[in-house]
Design brief:
With about 250 residues, this protein is mainly alpha-helical. About 85% of the residues lie in helices and about 0% in strands.
Length: about 250
């Protein structure tokens, strides 16, 4: 068994220089996502969560476009693509421990992210708000209000594609964290925190369908774990990149 583990580590080290920049970018991506999570938590406390109806969203966007877009989660649409870089870096770090599972986790995460990002965003509501404000008849305003409700029913938090995408992403992330437990690249604390938070987030997705209150509680537990996990993962990926840079320089000398 020890010989097998040592062999895996040698393979991992030999392949490392090819992934040095991917790890560095992955570390930066993790820190960006950490900052995003903290900013979202501060925003929710300071400004409130997403509006409950299209009329409320229209009012928010008319009174203060920036605050309205923030509460409609526009930053999420810019932050989520950063996950592509992070999961690629995690695959590069974990493929020597369990290549097939790491690859499956990455594919599921990528597929989930793509579905999630395909859902309508705050920009759709901003456009409808302008049309609603410019409408000259009650019938036209009612039409744009109905369109706004339809957009909110299919947005990144309520739409079927977004929920399926979120579930795929969480399953992929859980698989990646499970691989962390089997290797020596990441610590067990990092792995268990990831399994706990992504598992809670996955449960939250299904809980909101039948028990919305339970979904809120689950996210209240999982939410604070995200910045911690992103920090641990980002720090480790940056250190891996630095270690490989030093090793490559020493070998060249």
């Amino acid at each position: 068994m020890s010989g097998h583990i040592e062999s895996d580590k040698k393979d991992y080290r030999n392949a490392a220089p090819d992934w040095k920049w991917v790890w560095r970018l992955g570390g930066i991506a993790a820190f960006i996502l950490m900052a995003y999570c903290v900013a979202v938590m501060v925003q929710i406390v300071a400004l409130g969560g997403p509006p409950a109806s299209a009329s409320e969203a229209f009012q928010l966007l008319r009174e203060n476009r920036i605050v309205g877009l923030l509460r409609l989660d526009l930053p999420t649409m810019f932050a989520m693509p950063v996950y592509y870089v992070l999961f690629l870096a995690l695959y590069a770090a974990l493929k020597s421990d369990d290549g097939p599972i790491a690859a499956l986790g990455t594919v599921l995460a990528f597929a989930g992210l793509t579905l999630f990002l395909a859902a309508p965003s705050a920009l759709s509501m901003a456009s409808l708000t302008d049309k609603y404000a410019a409408a000259s008849t009650d019938a036209a305003r009612a039409q744009f209000l109905a369109a706004g409700e339809a957009v909110m029913a299919t947005d990144i938090w309520h739409g079927t594609s977004a929920k399926i995408g979120g579930a795929l992403m969480q399953v992929g992330a859980v698989l990646m964290c499970a691989v962390m437990l089997r290797g020596g690249v990441f610590g067990r604390v990092t792995a268990w925190i990831g399994i706990a938070m992504y598992g809670l987030d996955l449960t939250h997705i299904f809980a909101t369908i039948w028990l919305p209150v339970a979904g809120v509680v689950l996210m209240a537990i999982a939410g604070p774990l995200y910045p911690v996990w992103f920090f641990l993962v980002g720090r480790r990926l940056v250190r891996l990149s630095a270690e490989i840079s030093v090793r490559t320089t020493s070998a060249g000398a």
